[in-house]
Amino acid sequence: MIPAADITNVTSPLAAETTPVSPTLGSAAAANALTQNAPSILTQMAVGRLLQVQVLTQLKDGSYIVGVDDTALRMSLPEGTAVGSRLQMTLLGDSPRPTFLLESQTDNHAASLSTAGKIISNVLQAAQQSSAPSTLIGKTPILPGPLPDSGKIATAMQDSVEFSGLFYESHVTQWASGERPLSDLLREPQMQNNASAPAANTAGAARQSGSATSQGVILQRPGTNEAELARLIEDARTSADAHSAVGQAFTNLLTSAKGLPQEVDTVVKPTLLTPDDAQTIHLQLNSLEQNRYVWQGELWPGQKMEWEIEEDGSNNAHANAEDGDQTAWHSTVRFQLPSLGKISAIIHLSGGHVQVRLATDSASTASRLQARGKELADALDGAGSPLDSLLIQQDGSA
Known about the structure:
Number of helices: 13
Helix content: 25-40%
Radius of gyration: 32 Å
Strand content: 25-35%
Order of helices and strands: HHEEEEEHEHHHHHEHHEEHEEEEEHHE
C-alpha cells in the first residue's frame, strides 16, 4: 500500500537528472518537461507481482493517473472508480506494454455499490434500454407430442417453470440442506450453460482481436498524443486540491517523475454474465416484484401456449384457515386448439379449493365444453382439489 504521507517524501533517483515540473511552470514548459522519456521502474518488476496502486486523478479524456511506488502510470479503469481509491493489481506482462490485472479495490473514499449490486444495476439498465421482455420464453416444446395422460402433461408444465432458472438460487439452498437432489440442479439452465470469458492466447492478440484475454477484458484507453496528454496532466495538476493527501501525492509524484506517465493496459476480470444470465436475473427481479410469472412457448411442436401464474394477495386473508394454506393463486392458460379454436382457462386456487372460468370465442365450442363440465369436476375432485364453481362462456376476448 502507498500511504499518502510517505509519497510526499519520495524522491525519484532520476529526479536529479531532469527538470522538475514546478507549480509555477507554464503549460508549454510543463509539456516540455513531461514529454521527456525515461526508463520505467516496471521493467525491474517480476511478472506476477501483486502491487498496491493508488488512483491519483482522472483526466478529462476519462483515463486515470495512478501511482505505484514512485512511478506514475496512465491507464483506463472501470467506470465509477473514485480518485483516492487503492487498488490491487497484478503485473501480467511487460511487452509490448505493461499489462495489469485489476484484482480488487481495497478502499474507496466514495460510496460504491457491491459487485452484486453493480451487476443487478447493469442488468436493469440493459433490460430497460433493450426493452427486454418480462416473459419466460420456452426455447423448446415442453412435450415431444400430444399425450392422453393429463397427469404427465401437468407434470411437464410444472417442470417447465420450476426448472426454468427463475428459482435456481432457492433450489441451491434446498440442495445444500438436503431437501433437493443434485439431479434437480443439473436440470437448471445455470448448470447447463458453462459460461466462460472470451479467451485469447496473449494480451497482444487481444488488442488486435477485440480486447479479450484469457484473464479478462482489456479496457481501451483514449488515443491521446504526447502534447495533448501533457496538457491534460497539467490541467489536472493545477486543479488538484493541494490540501488533500491525494492532491499532494499527485503533485509530488509529478515533481519527482521524469517524462510522461507510462502507458499501461488494464485487464478486468469478466463477470461471466451471459445475455441469458442477464435475462434470467431480469425475470427473477420482475417476478419477485409482481409475484407473477408468465411463460410463452409450445406445449408440443406446433401447439403454442401462454401461461400466467400470479399470487392473489387480495384474497390471501380469506383463504381457508382449516387447510392451513393462506396463499391464493390465479393461473391462466391460453391455447389456440385445432378443433376448439381459441380458449382461455382461468383457474383460481385457494385453500385446496378450485374455481374455473373457461372462455372461448366460439359459441359451438362453449356448448361442447359445457357438455363435458361434469367430467372436469369429477377429475378435479378425484385429484383432491374440489371444484367450487365452473363458468363456461363465449367471450370474444378469450
